[in-house]
Write a structure and sequence with these properties.
The protein has three helices and five strands; from the N terminus they run E-E-H-E-E-E-H-H. By secondary structure, the chain is of the alpha+beta class. It has a single domain, classed as Beta-Lactamase (2-Layer Sandwich), CATH 3.30.450.20. The strands form two sheets. The protein has a three-stranded antiparallel beta sheet with strand order 3-4-5, with helices on both faces. It has a two-stranded antiparallel sheet with strand order 1-2. Strand 3 and strand 4 form a beta hairpin. The radius of gyration is 13 Å and the shape is globular.
């Protein structure tokens, strides 16, 4: 999921979630300040806990929103090393502006 600088979802794999306002979310607000945060939260659509990585979206050295990648813990348990590496490299590429 990707937000704009006002923390409103502009891109999401679940199209019904586009337009959701995340401006009151503490982790998203911290990420908008330049921090990358990993946390877990309950995702009701999957009825399970997911691990989320939220990182700033930079455009020309300015934070223009945040990117959140959520991974199912069930999937994570199935192939944890590969998923951890995927999250790490995706976060790094997003942080330096390649994604």
């Amino acid at each position: 999921m990707v937000t704009n600088q006002h923390l409103v979802a502009s891109v999401d794999t679940d199209q019904a979630d586009i337009g959701i306002d995340y401006s009151e979310d503490v982790d998203y607000k911290e990420s908008l300040k330049g921090k990358t945060i990993a946390t877990d939260w309950y995702y009701d659509k999957l009825d399970e806990i997911v691990i989320a990585v939220v990182t700033p979206l930079y455009v020309h050295d300015k934070v223009m929103g945040v990117v959140m990648i959520g991974i199912s813990q069930k999937l994570l348990k199935a192939d944890s090393l590969s998923l951890v590496m995927l999250i790490f490299f995706a976060t790094m590429l997003i942080s330096v502006g390649y994604l």
